[in-house]
Amino acid sequence: MTRKHIIITGGAQGIGRVMTEEFLKNDYNVSVFDIDSEAMEEIRPHFDKRHCEFFITDVSNQVSVRSSIRASLKKFDAVYGLINNAVFAIFKPMSELTLEEWNRAISTNLTGTFLCSKFLIPYLKESTGCIINMCSTRAFQSEPDTESYSASKGGIYALTHSMAISLGPDIRVNCISPGWIDVSAIKKSSKAKPEKLTREDHAQHPAGRVGNPLDIARMALFLLDPANSFITGQNFIVDGGMTRKMIYV
Ligand SMILES: NC(=O)c1ccc[n+]([C@@H]2O[C@H](COP(=O)([O-])OP(=O)(O)OC[C@H]3O[C@@H](n4cnc5c(N)ncnc54)[C@H](O)[C@@H]3O)[C@@H](O)[C@H]2O)c1
């Protein structure tokens, strides 16, 4: 069986890193596009060079995206899947949020999703492939001071169904909206912190626990599986039930 090749943006840390591990375990070849060279150099020795390659990429920059796509196609030939996962998240009061910070959130999260998808269209059409966009439950509900992040994720939600209609039936496009997924320990060593979740953190979830990156990786594996080809244009909330809970005090 030939291994299918997928590209995961922001695959060097957090949920993206665990998705990289899980897709490799499930016989995919993986190209990681990430801006953080330190994080990539740290994990590179732990992955099988034959099946995983790392490309320094700024997803918000079209020259960088095109050059990484060219390099990854040189290594792995065709491409079957794209997971738009890279993120810039900043939470601060709107009155203090600079235009530069706002633009960085929109350009990394939303424009980055557009650029990586746009330049892969011909290849994904050829492989009858799949795109998964990482959205968030914050596209649908909010805590204070999350405007740039929430707006970028709302854009990703709409971009997903729009792309599904334009690119089908050749390319399926779905998004996943995680709730609280603890990634504090899955960072490069200069940034990693031990997990410090409390009993209350877990207990407030209808599912009884905070999420972990494997919860998201499993959903991504399901959506990329060609056997699930009737699913497109959809958003899948993976949040332990939090968005179904009424919280009136
Ligand atoms: N962790 C959560 O609780 C949670 C909840 C909802 C949604 N999400 C979504 O899941 C995805 C992964 O989140 P995470 O918590 O694992 O993030 P993370 O911060 O741990 O990792 C993000 C990765 O993206 C990379 N990145 C940042 N800017 C980039 C750029 N311009 N080009 C390429 N790579 C870039 C970073 O270097 C990093 O490796 C994101 O889209 C996020 O919005 C996460």
The small-molecule ligands in this entry are:
nicotinamide-adenine-dinucleotide
The CA-CA distance between the termini, in Å, is 56 Å
Number of helical segments with 4 or more residues: 7
Number of domains: 1
Shape: globular
* Major sheet strand order: 3-2-1-4-5-6-7
CATH H-level superfamily title? NAD(P)-binding Rossmann-like Domain
Summarize the main sheet.
7 strands, parallel
What does this structure look like?
- The chain has helices spanning 14-25, 37-43, 62-76, 99-127, 147-167, 199-203, 213-224; strands at residues 4-9, 28-34, 52-56, 81-84, 130-134, 172-178, 235-238.
- The longest helix has 29 residues, at 99-127.
- Strands 3-2-1-4-5-6-7 form a seven-stranded parallel sheet, sandwiched between helices.
- It has seven helices and seven strands; from the N terminus they run βαβαβαβαβαβααβ.
- It has one domain (4-244): Rossmann fold (3-Layer(aba) Sandwich), CATH 3.40.50.
- It is an alpha/beta fold and 249 residues long.
- It starts with a strand and ends in an 11-residue tail after the last strand.
- It is globular, with a radius of gyration of 18 Å.
- The model has no long low-confidence stretch (mean pLDDT 98).
- Helix 1 (14-25) crosses helix 7 (213-224), helix 3 packs parallel to helix 4 (99-127) and helix 4 packs parallel to helix 5 (147-167).
- The protein is 41% helix and 15% strand.
- The structure holds nicotinamide-adenine-dinucleotide.
- Nicotinamide-adenine-dinucleotide is lined by residues 9-10, 12-16, 33-36, 39, 57-60, 85-88, 108, 112, 134, 136, 178, 180-181, 183.
- Nicotinamide-adenine-dinucleotide (NAD) binds next to helix 1, strand 2 and helix 4.
